[in-house]
Amino acid sequence: MRRAVLLLALAWVLPVSLHAEEVSPAPVLDISTTGSKVSISWGGDSRWVLQKAESQSLQQLGDLAFRDVDRAKVRFLDNRHDFSEPLAEEAFYRLVQYGTILPESRKANVLVLHGKAMDADWMDSAPICVDLEKALGTRANFFYAEAPHLQNPFITLYSRAWWDCLFADYEELSESVSYVIDFANNDIPGDVDLVIGYSQGGTLASHLLNLLDSGRDMGSLANVRNAIFVNSAAMEDLFPMYDLESLENTPDDYSASNINTMHLMANGDIVVLPQWSSNLANSYNKSVTITYSGDHTMSIGGATPFLLIDIFPDAVSQAVEDWIREN
Q1: Which CATH architecture has domain 2-97?
Q2: Does residue 39 contact residue 31 with C-beta atoms inside 8 Å?
Q3: CB atoms within 10 A of CB 249
Q4: How far, CA to CA in Å, does 39 sit from each of 14, 29, 30, 36?
Q5: Suppose 66 and one of 53, 234, 257, 291 were both cysteines; which one would form an S-S bond, judging by CB atoms 3.0 to 4.6 Å apart?
Q6: What is the pLDDT of residue 310?
Q7: Domain residue spans in the chain?
Q8: Could you give the strand order of the β-sheet that contains 30-34, starting from the edge strand earlier in sequence?
C-alpha cells in the first residue's frame, strides 16, 4: 500500500505535455496495486502515451530514463486506457503527448541517410540513431538506406557515397535520388514520416524535399514533412559550387514553407562548417537549431562502425526526442 501511494504521488507530479500547442492538462493517472501487479488507467485521447522509469535509472539519467510502455499491453475500454504489469520496486510513470510525426494508428517510418565515406551500418551505430531507436521503442521503425556508389576504399572497405562531391557528379546524384525513392517504395511499409540526414545524406535529403513539388512521382516520400539534418549543408555551400541548370541549390518556396526541420551542428566541425549548417537551417521557415560541442563524426572511431565511442551529448539526444514528440 505504501508503494502505491508513492507511485500515485509521482504520477501526479511528472505528467508533462510535450506538444507546444496543447492547452488541456494531462489526464490524471489512477494507479493501484493488487498483490504483485500494478494497474494504471487514464482518460483522454490516444495521443497521451504512458512512460515508465526505474528508480535507479531515473536518478542517473533524469528524463532520459523514461521509455514508452509496450503499447500492445494498453487496453481501451469505456473511454479509459488501462495498463497493467508485474509490480517493480520504485517504478515511476508519467504521460506525454505526441505530435503528428508519430502516428496514432501505426508505427512511424523513419528514413535515415548516412554521410559520404560511410555506410548504413555506420549510421545504424551512430549515437543519435541508437538513442532515438531506444527512446521511441515500438513507436517507430528505422530504415537505413545505403548509397549505391563505392567511394574511398582506402578509408574503409564499406565506404559509400551518394555522389562524388569533388567533381560534382550529377549523374551519380541522379542515380542516388532514384535509388532512395525506390528504397522507400520497396522497403518501407507506407509513408515516410521523418527523414534523418547526416552530412552528405542531409544535403541529399534537402534535395529530395525540393522534389516534392516538382511533379515527379516520389512514392512513399510524397507525404514526408519532417526532417532532421546533422552537420549538413545546402548544395551551394559545398565545393565546388553546383551550377547545373535547374538544380535547386537551396530549399525552394514549397519545401521552405511546408517542411518542419531540426538542424544539429557541431561547433568544432571542420568538414561541414557550422555556418553552412546554419545557412541550411535559415533556408527553412519552420526550423529549430541546436549547436553542440563536438566534431563532425559525433563519435570517436571515424568512418568504421565497429569501434565507435559515443561522445554525442545526452542533452542533444533528449532535445531531438522531445522535438519528435512535439511535432
Answers
A1: Sandwich (2.60)
A2: yes
A3: 18
A4: 17, 10, 8, 10
A5: 53
A6: 62
A7: 2-97, 108-326
A8: 30-34, 37-42, 80-86, 75-77
Task: Select from 64, 63, 71 the least CA-distant residue to 104.
Answer: 71
3-state secondary structure of 76: strand
User: pLDDT band for position 5 (50/70/90)?
Assistant: very low
Q: pLDDT by residue (tens digit) across 284-322?
A: 988 999 998 888 887 655 555 555 666 678 888 889 988
Is 252 a residue whose pLDDT tops 90? no
Q: C-alpha cell of 163?
A: 555522389
Q: What is the CATH number of domain 108-326?
A: 3.40.50.1820
Of the candidates 320, 286, 314, the one whose C-alpha atom is nearest the C-alpha of residue 57 is 314
What's the CA gap between 311 and 293, in Å, rounded?
10
Residue type (1 letter), 106:
R
Q: How much is the CA Rg of the chain, to the nearest whole Å?
A: 21
Secondary structure string (H, E, C) spanning 19-48: CCCCCCCCCCCEEEEECCEEEEEECCCCCE
Calpha distance 299→112 (Å, rounded): 17
The mean pLDDT value for 227-254 works out to 74
Over residues 237-266, the mean pLDDT reads: 76
How many Cα atoms within 13 Å fall on the side-chain side of residue 263? Answer: 29
- Percent of the chain whose predicted confidence (pLDDT) is above 90: 33
DSSP helix, strand, coil percent of the chain (3-state; round to 5): 35, 25, 40
| Sheet bearing 48-54, strands edge to edge | 67-68, 48-54, 91-97
Instruction: Report the alpha-carbon distance of residue 217 to residue 227 in Å, rounded.
Output: 19
Task: Give residue-wise pLDDT tens across range 273-292.
Answer: 999 999 999 999 889 999 98
What are the angstrom distances between the C-alpha of 286 and each of 23, 176, 223?
21, 27, 17
Task: Please state the separation of Cα 302 from the chain's center in Å.
Answer: 22
Return the pLDDT at 23. Answer: 41
Q: Give the C-alpha separation, 47 to 68, whole Å.
A: 12
